[in-house]
Design goal:
The chain has about 375 residues and is an alpha/beta fold. The chain has 13 helices and 15 strands. Helix 6 links the parallel strand 4 (about 120-125) and strand 5 (about 145-150). Bound molecules: pyridoxal-5'-phosphate.
Amino acid sequence: MLPYGKQWLDEADIEAVVQVLQGDFITQGPAIEAFERKVADYAGVRYGVAFSNGTAALHGACFAAGIAAGDEVITTPLTFLASSNCVLYQGGTPIFADIDPVTYNIDPRQIEQKLTPRTKAIIPVDFSGQPAEMDRIQEIARQHNLIVIEDAAHSLGAEYQGRKVGTWADMTMFSFHPVKHVTTGEGGMIVTDNEEFYGKLLSFRSHGMTRDPDKLIQNDGPWYYEMQALGYNYRMTDIQAALGISQMDKLDGFIARRRELVDIYNRELADIPGLVLPKQHAESNSSWHLYVVRFLPQYFQSSRKEIFEQLRAWNIGVNVHYIPVYLQPYYKGLGYEKGLCPHAENYYESCITLPLFPGMKDEDVLYVVRAIKELI
Ligand SMILES: *Cc1c(COP(=O)(O)O)cnc(C)c1O
């Protein structure tokens, strides 16, 4: 089966991991800081804090932002569960603002309509690798004194108005799951320019504990440590960080290859009535995590489900991104109802994600194209 996404590992990656295994530190050694430095420099920000996965990183960002019971956080329904669950972890309430039906990103006008005196933060998601409208989202946040946490799990290396993702939000999350742009197996990171958030993220990652003599409330001696907040063990290992450092060297090449593959899809699938190809906002330069097409039901004899099943029968690992989060049984149990975000629900009825990953060959794309053309 041709998967929808897949990691790309080489000998240098394997060698980097083996070197850590032969050294003195296998967790929280020098590779962690080097990896944080490398990702923060790449994104153009001062600080990076690595976490055991992207979801833990989002949880850390919600903690650093001070999200607590009674706070509302506006986010998109068209995302992986994590970007809304992290609000629940802190006792906050996710408020879903509908997507723009063209870019599939959260619509800033919908954000404005969902603002209340309880709104504390906005979590936009750069869907499929295309940055959300970060200039307008920042403007809304400044006007209403809100914190912006950008879920950039899809968009490492993407740009908005010529500026890298990472430089726009107060805190930006990257994921290093194997289907994302670079991998550490499991892993995530928050990048930020804010020193206060940086300190809180470091503490939250490791039990809320500190040994820093300047921060201690009392000091019983050289062994002494203090837990000053409720944190978790969300640490990444040096084994993973070494893999991440090695992967970062290849990131720009990975993105360039993704863009080439997208050009082939766009060229070969153009002009099929009812097949909607991904559209780019004029200000954004996507790093293309996903290539999502929509089969508008009135144009095709087969349903989306049938097309999906037939593509799987051609051994093509198509997928659906995403079921609107609030339609999940757990969220329904919290009181969210169908009909809340009509554009996201409408999108969900017709979308299919086609395979896209750097190791994919031109012939693989042409095979997917041929399958689609024969099926419809
Ligand atoms: C992958 C992903 C995450 C979570 O990342 P993990 O590293 O798997 O925990 C969060 N949000 C989005 C949109 C993602 O795609």
